[in-house]
Design goal:
globular; Glutaredoxin; two-stranded antiparallel ribbon; alpha+beta; 4-stranded mixed beta sheet
């Protein structure tokens, strides 16, 4: 169901790992860091830095969202296992969505919008998209870019309160 006051990029029905509805429209005035994740990837330790970024800057408006995906054959079999792994191994508290495709023919609708906005689909796990408030600008960073890198922070900091 479309929300007229919600921008196109944010107007999607999302579900968290624990089955709860997540309304992205509520965050359209904040900077958002979106990351496609996998539990069994060489980049998986980035969860620690992503959680630290979330903890350090959520009070200033930053939202970090993880999108687990098995597109690169490195994700656990179900949402409960993914959630348990993220919480127990890395203490993840930032919102994690239900497992879905982030590329290919069955890409989830939100990622389809991100790819359209940037003309860049994730080339591997832990690809990062920084969405400026209102979705006016979306920047893309590769898996190699650490969550606390100067380049990524340069895109986030101007929008923190």
């Amino acid at each position: 169901m479309a929300n007229a006051s919600c921008g196109e990029l944010y107007n999607h029905q999302l579900t968290t790992l624990d089955g709860k509805a997540f309304n992205l429209c509520e965050y359209q005035d904040k900077p958002i860091l979106v990351v496609n994740t996998a539990s069994k990837c060489g980049f998986t330790p980035q969860f620690e830095a992503l959680e630290k970024l979330y903890e350090d800057y959520k009070s200033q408006g930053l939202l970090v969202i993880g999108f687990p995906s098995n597109d690169f054959k490195q994700e656990l079999s179900d949402d409960k296992k993914i959630g348990d792994f993220c919480r127990m191994t890395y203490g993840v508290k930032f919102p994690m969505m239900a497992k879905s495709a982030v590329r290919g023919s069955d890409v989830n609708p939100f990622y389809k919008q991100l790819i359209k906005a940037t003309n860049t689909k994730p080339k591997w796990n832990f690809y990062k998209y920084v969405i400026a408030p209102g979705g006016e600008k979306v920047s893309v960073f590769s898996s190699l870019t650490k969550p606390d890198s100067k380049a990524l922070m340069k895109e986030i900091k101007p929008y923190l309160k």
